[in-house]
Design a protein that fits this description.
The structure is a single chain. The protein is mainly alpha-helical. Helix 3 crosses helix 5, helix 4 crosses helix 5 and helix 8 crosses helix 10. The protein is elongated and about 60 Å long. The N and C termini lie far apart (76 Å). 20% of the residues are buried.
Length: 246
């Protein structure tokens, strides 16, 4: 009989009837209220977890994993790769978490920000701090290009794939040494051979070029829609190694 009364009390509470009308014990009534109150609090927490970074900047596990990956990587990571490594649902979730992290960086006036580069993402320091960071690792000296090298790189970027003879025709001077320097720095690579007499090499920019200049793709080059010249695909032949890597 006592058990039946307890069941009736529980059903009445679920249907909105006052427990006192069924002579429910006060202790039991309080426990039920606490049970449903804790359930509501849990639901609220689950709804709030749709944001992996809360208003205080506290990271959830997914955001923490994603941020850690970007921190240790020295190259841009695609959204798909980040989703795989951080065990996230898909690229869309990666984009949402990155947006939340950037909002937290802006809110906290952090020195960091996640930027798009080379069809991926990089965790970078803001340009404001470049002068002070240069005192630590002297990167500016390592990355500095001479005016002739920068001119050669510009021609390759806007006219790629392009032969050395075509670069020299644009610049009006020899560029073999400049191309060698750009190849050594990983900013330019040999992308194939032209289907013409002598089969000269075709030069193109690399992923590192995009990362170094903070570009998501070649379409983000200044005035790309007006200055870029795209070679017809049948005029070049990719080497087997380049074709295999896409």
């Amino acid at each position: 009989m006592r058990r039946d009364r307890t069941i009736r009390d529980s059903i009445a509470i679920l249907h909105g009837f006052p427990a006192a009308n069924l002579r429910a014990p006060q202790v039991f009534d309080e426990r039920v209220r606490q049970f449903f109150r804790s359930g509501a609090d849990t639901a609220d927490r689950l709804r709030n977890r749709s944001s992996e970074v809360d208003e205080h900047g506290v990271r959830g596990r997914k955001a923490a994993r994603l941020e850690a990956l970007l921190f240790v990587s020295d190259t841009a990571l695609s959204a798909r790769r980040l989703a795989q490594l951080a065990m996230l649902a898909d690229s869309a979730q990666v984009a949402r978490i990155i947006e939340q992290l950037n909002a937290a960086y802006d809110r906290d006036r952090s020195a960091y920000r996640i930027e798009r580069a080379a069809n991926g993402y990089l965790l970078l320091t803001r340009p404001t701090f470049a002068h002070w960071l240069g005192r630590v690792h002297h990167r500016q000296g390592d990355m500095k290009l001479s005016p002739p090298a920068l001119e050669t790189l510009t021609v390759v970027a806007y006219r790629q794939p392009i032969t050395r003879a075509e670069i020299e025709a644009v610049r009006g001077v020899q560029c073999a040494e400049m191309l060698k320097q750009l190849l050594e720095r990983g900013l330019v690579r040999i992308g194939g051979e032209e289907n013409s007499l002598g089969r000269p090499y075709l030069y193109e920019t690399t992923r590192q070029f995009l990362e170094s200049f903070g570009l998501g793709s070649l379409d983000e080059l200044p005035l790309a829609d007006r200055l870029r010249v795209i070679r017809p695909p049948d005029s070049a032949e990719l080497p087997q190694s380049a074709a295999a890597t896409g």
